[in-house]
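Example (one chain per record):
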Amino acid sequence: MAALRTPILLIACAGLFGCQPDPPTLRTAKPAELPPARNLELKPPPKPAQSSPEAQKKLEAMLAAHTGGKPELLQKLKSASFTRIGALSANDQVLAATQTVDVSWPVRFKNSTELTTETVATTTFGLSPEANWIAQVNKRFGEAAPQAIPKQKMVDDLLLIAQRQFQEDACFLLFPFADPSTRVLFADDTLIGAKDCYGLHVWTPALTYVLLHIEKKSNALIRIAYSGRESGKDLVKELLFDELQDYGGIKLPAKVYIRAAGIDLAEWRSLKVTAGKTFDAKHFDGP
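Predicted structure:
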């Protein structure tokens, strides 16, 4: 079965896949660190008018663990840039990938993803109040001139997927969980690999509803599960976190594993973050 990574990537690479001498692999973590992929169901209760005080304390403990007790630091991630390197699964192949994401919350977003086979295919898309667009450049090794598809407007499902990606990456940067409008209730505890975790139902200004799992021992965020968009349909996606590193006082996961409907989609193995970055609005107008 073909992996479900977004059509943004599949469109960019259609017909261009080739063999690599040493292809990357997914699921490099030890079994104890990463549970087997499975279909995950979300059963959110009705959104409460107010958070449960006890659940709110657990959410605040998670934010404190990631910010050294200074959740106000998350404000600078509302305007930030990050680059992650790893592997994506597409068309039954695992491809080396580099992704650069620029966020200017709440209305501007740009994502550029480079996939490497015998061709380097780069797809970039942007969202802003002025316009949305997608563009593509493909370059075979040894060719002087790349093949380019000029930017065009995203519509229908492609636009919805891009919008969900914006919301997903905002939650990856944690700041929506510190918003005063966020609501939280307890969910069931669970084991993720060998880690004993609290469960929290959370409603945020980014993703309407997410299920969080937080390690009891460290208060670190281990998993985000939510209704994502892949291959033309809504389905449960998971972001599993490992190896927290410090970025200007904020601890974010250097390793992120992404799954949907029990299928491994991506593994990001390294992360670089520039928080508090200032963007000109025109930066989001094109590649």
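Caption: Helices lie at 7-13, 53-67, 156-172.
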